[in-house]
Design a protein that fits this description.
heterotrimer; A mainly alpha; B alpha/beta; C alpha+beta; A: mainly alpha; MetI-like fold; two-stranded antiparallel ribbon; 2 strands; B: alpha/beta; Rossmann fold; 6-stranded mixed beta sheet; 4-stranded antiparallel beta sheet; 10 helices; 10 strands
């Protein structure tokens, strides 16, 4: 028997079973703990924001009196009275503004994004598709603060001049329109990328079936392919609206931060739930601080409800599932 | 008969599907045993029972006894890891790890805690020599194993399996992904290896079974139809189904 | 012949082409805007200078004049005083206001003896140097020279005097060194926290977990995090991590560590997802081969599976770094908006992105400096994206 065989046999016949099993168990537990930690953050977020966000409604806010939840959700003036001395906050108009702006921005970015996706997937040559894909990826990777910078350096001026052409004096261009344009730009890459995937995965047979029936390429693209990809396109809209509702810094630089509303004219200054949260955060105690958590809580509820409603509609509308 | 595996009344279920039915077989030591049969007959599943690789499949339920060297391997406190160092395995497709040739062969010994560089060097060299790969790779032993050809990769996998000096080597269609020349080299290698190891091989090719094995087991629909000396199976099979299969009437 | 169908087709096509060009136009406009506004401020000094200018009131007693000659290398625009051995030049600061900068100071200039007047007893010497701003020089015998009269008049004034009562000068300021360092700290600390947790979570979900209700619950909880807007994470930081760091360290407000903790939560789903995806493409044959060689589950995972998944983990990390550099909304709450020069991990400071936000929120907004920072951010983020593309291309080739 060679030396090597003896050594190998010694190692093989060591009773390692219990030790190795034990190591496996320990490692498994460690990994599971970090998984539980990762999963717990969403719960921590919900608990803490709910706790903090509900505080202004249930406590007396050091003597100024509690915020009335009904008027908070329905009123049309952000704060009646002076900060830290009044509890008369309301964000009804801000909720309307937020949804209105998100809707308008999608009204622009959806057609542009879907058509871009169609162009990339079905019309353009390989090289142009590749180029456009890179453009879309770059647009997606630009941080939102840079969009905000671009918004206040270019879009504000454009909107200001546009308003002047209509004989309207806008406040430096800060307006519903500027916000909508910035958000439309920011949601464009998301919508394009996801729509493109769903357009590309439309079954070739359907396309050929349409062409064989004598439809032109363009007719096929618009009538058959877009219809077949509608479920994926709808999914892109859901993601897009999520981003539009939650975007904060870029919006805060172009919205103008109105204190009352709702702002429904395109050249009016406006405010969204997110821009309101960012506005003038100086103190770290008191009602003016706590109320931001209430706004955040409302934002989460708005996003959740929008998602639920849109997903429900998607189920009703979408027949062909795109994966 | 000097048997190394004794299998009694082995039944294996995947959820509702019974993959193996009442298998009884004795596997002889230092012989090549070939398992043949049409696809899905349970021969690979049977092979994987012998080193408990089926443990990885959640839905797999096993009853009956498999005794390796007179010890039932399917008891709850049996040392599976030690079993796998004694019953090595070579897979259908060559599957070297994306590491160097050296690290591939040294992987098993290292996992058992052998750290001494000299011992590892010797194990690697011996294993590569035994698998007839040493001359071809001695100059690039630190290069990635993925740079080898398919046949070389499979011989590396054999080297990796024999690095632990197992008693049994299980081979699951080891040549099905290789060209004829590489296949021939592996078969020659098996002839060398059977002097030292017990080999159990699943094969699709009846010619291969006839060429290399001492005993042959014929599986059909999860049942062991016939088990005998290879020359008997191929010349005077007792069972009609075996005869039909080896004469190519089905399968 | 153009029939109605053809005309409609052409209209549709034109609309499609127009839509497809919007993205290209937008991207070029953004890049053009940022570069045209920011490029003129972009220089090495900006990257290494302090943001806040340091002001000094300097005094000098009994100057010893050496009358060194004007160096020939000096530009014509520089006004030089032979008596004091100093060259001054007119310039503009980052807000566009006129300033006078010390362009040259000779090695034996009497001005090198200037001491800090605010500290009369110790008479500590201030190291006056090239690049400092001179805002005002006052004398015993005549009117004060001010920035508004220009460098030429200031040089004429000092050349004709032998005594200086007070000289007010300052360092340049406006640099972004502090924000760069904060961003680097933030990246390192966040990665140190998020990477181990993210990778072990991905390993658990892909390699160790059994398919049951608990696993799918954990998985969907983690996935929900991706849909949460970053400003909400900011609130999480404000409500949980800021108080936590204040409680357990010397921090008194939002700080780098609270920012890192917040960012870690944002990045977890990204890291988990990219790690899991790369674990999924590791062939099962590697796992069975390793187990068949007598390795246990842990050895198999750490020695075989994880190394094969390395490129994917790398990709996830780079994407995460890009996200850290670009993140603003969450950090406004979780790290604060105070631009600082002295950085400590439990102190106030801010990152490049938030720095842009503060500059834009100022009245009037400083678009030029903001654009310069944006150039820095864009260059880093775009480079990261290119590297990620290269890595994933190689990764796809391997399997």
């Amino acid at each position: 028997m060679s030396t090597i065989t003896r050594i190998l046999n010694r190692y093989k016949n060591r009773r390692t079973y219990n030790k190795k099993e034990f190591v496996d168990k320990i490692v498994r537990v460690i990994f599971m703990m970090s998984t539980i930690l990762s999963a717990s953050f969403i719960i921590i977020i919900i608990i803490f924001i709910s706790l903090k966000g509900l505080t202004p409604f249930v406590t007396s806010n050091s003597g100024i009196g509690s915020v009335n939840i009904i008027s908070f959700l329905t009123g049309n003036v952000w704060l009646t009275g002076t900060a830290f001395q009044s509890s008369l906050y309301s964000i009804g108009f801000i909720i309307v503004n937020t949804l209105f702006i998100a809707f308008l921005s999608l009204l622009i970015s959806m057609p542009v994004g879907v058509l871009t996706a169609l162009f990339i997937a079905k019309i353009a040559s390989r090289r142009i598709s590749e180029f456009l894909r890179i453009v879309v990826e770059l647009l997606a990777s630009i941080p939102s603060i840079v969009y905000g910078l671009f918004g206040s350096g270019v879009i504000l001026i454009f909107v200001y001049n546009l308003a002047e052409a209509f004989g309207i004096q806008s406040r430096g261009g800060n307006s519903v329109l500027a916000t909508v344009l910035v958000l439309a730009l920011m949601t464009l890459p998301t919508i394009t990328a996801i729509s493109e995937v769903s357009i590309r995965s439309v079954n070739k047979d359907i396309e050929q079936g349409s062409l064989a029936l004598g439809a032109t390429r363009t007719q096929t693209n618009f009538k058959v392919i877009l219809m077949s990809a509608k479920s994926g396109i709808f999914a892109s809209a859901i993601l897009g609206i999520g981003r539009a509702l939650g975007e904060a810094t870029a919006v805060s630089l172009v919205a103008g931060n109105s204190k009352s509303g709702p702002s429904l004219g395109v050249f009016d200054i406006t405010s969204t739930l997110t821009s309101t949260m960012l506005e003038g955060l100086k103190e770290t105690t008191g009602i003016d601080y706590d109320i931001r958590f209430s706004v955040g809580l409302v934002l989460m509820v708005v996003i959740l409800l929008t998602n639920l409603i849109l997903n429900y509609i998607k189920k009703k509308v979408g027949s062909i599932d795109v994966k | 008969m000097n048997s190394i595996f004794e299998i009694d009344n082995l039944n294996l279920h995947y959820d509702d599907f019974q993959a193996l039915k009442d298998i009884n077989i004795r596997i002889e030591k230092n012989k090549v045993t070939a398992l043949i049969g049409p696809s899905g007959c349970g021969k690979s599943t049977f092979l994987r029972c012998l080193n408990r690789m089926n443990d990885l499949i959640d839905s797999c339920k096993i009853t009956g006894e498999i005794e390796f060297k007179e010890e039932n391997i399917y008891t709850s406190n049996y040392d599976v890891i030690s079993l796998r160092t004694k019953v090595g395995m070579v897979f259908q497709k060559p599957n070297p790890f994306p590491m160097s040739i050296y690290d591939n062969v040294a992987y098993g010994p290292r996992c058992q805690g052998i750290k001494d560089k000299n011992i590892l060097d010797e194990i690697v060299a011996t294993s590569l020599k035994s698998s007839a790969l040493y001359e071809e790779v001695r100059d690039r032993i630190k290069e990635s194993a993925l740079s080898l050809s398919g046949g070389q990769q499979q011989r590396l996998c054999i080297a990796r399996a024999i690095a632990m000096e197992p008693e049994v080597i299980l081979m699951d269609e080891p040549t099905s992904a290789l060209d004829p020349i590489a296949t021939l080299r592996i078969e020659e290698l098996m002839n060398e290896l059977k002097k030292k190891y017990t080999i159990i091989i699943v094969t699709h090719s009846m010619h291969q079974a006839a060429r290399i094995s001492d005993n042959t087991a014929f599986f059909l629909m999860g049942e062991l139809i016939e088990f005998d000396k290879t020359n008997k199976i191929f010349t005077t099979p007792k069972n009609q189904k075996t005869e039909d299969y080896i004469t190519g009437r089905f399968g | 012949m153009l029939n109605k169908r053809n005309i409609i087709d052409i209209i549709y096509q034109v609309i499609t082409y127009l839509a497809a060009s919007v993205g290209v136009i937008a991207l070029s406009m953004i890049i053009f805007f940022v570069f045209s506004n920011g490029l003129k401020l972009l220089n090495f000094g900006l990257l290494v200078n302090d943001y806040h200018a340091e002001f000094y009131n300097g005094g000098i007693d009994d100057p010893i004049f050496t009358f060194s000659h004007r160096p020939i290398s000096l530009d014509d625009k520089v006004f030089y005083s032979q008596k004091w051995g100093i060259g001054l030049v007119d310039s503009k600061d980052r807000e566009g206001n006129p300033i006078i900068i010390i362009e040259y100071i000779s090695g034996d200039s009497p001005l090198l003896e200037i001491y800090d007047k605010n500290n009369e007893e110790s008479k500590e010497i201030i190291g006056i140097d090239k690049g400092f701003l001179v805002s005002k020089i006052s004398y015993y015998d005549k009117n004060t020279s001010l920035t508004m009269y220009g460098a030429e008049s200031m040089i004429n004034d000092i050349e004709s005097t032998n005594e200086i009562r007070e000289i007010v000068f300052s360092s340049l300021g406006g640099g972004i060194r502090g924000s760069i360092i904060t961003t680097l700290y933030l990246i390192s600390i966040t990665i140190i926290i998020a990477l181990p947790i993210g990778i072990s979570t991905a390993i658990y979900l892909n390699e160790f977990s059994s398919k049951n209700r608990l696993t799918s619950l954990l998985r969907s909880l983690i996935e929900t995090l991706t849909g949460v807007p970053s400003i909400i994470f900011g609130l999480l930081g404000l409500a949980v991590f800021v108080p936590l760091t204040i409680r357990f360290s010397e921090a008194t407000s939002a700080n780098i560590v609270s920012g890192s903790l917040t960012l870690s939560v944002i990045l977890l789903p990204i890291i988990i997802k990219s790690t899991e995806e790369s674990l999924k493409v590791v062939p099962d044959s590697f796992r069975s081969a390793s187990l068949a060689l007598g390795a246990n589950h842990t050895q198999t995972t750490l020695k075989v599976v994880l190394p094969s998944a390395f490129p994917g983990i790398m990709t996830g990390t780079l994407l995460a770094i890009g996200r850290i550099i670009g993140e603003s909304a969450a950090l406004i709450f979780a790290i604060g908006t105070a631009v600082k020069d002295d950085i400590s991990i439990f102190g106030k400071s801010t990152t490049l992105s938030v720095h842009i936000w503060s500059l834009m929120k100022d009245e009037p907004a400083n678009i030029e400096l903001a654009s310069t920072i944006a150039i820095v951010i864009l260059l880093i983020v775009l480079t990261l994206n290119i590297i990620v593309k290269l890595i994933s291309k190689r990764f796809i080739k391997e399997f």
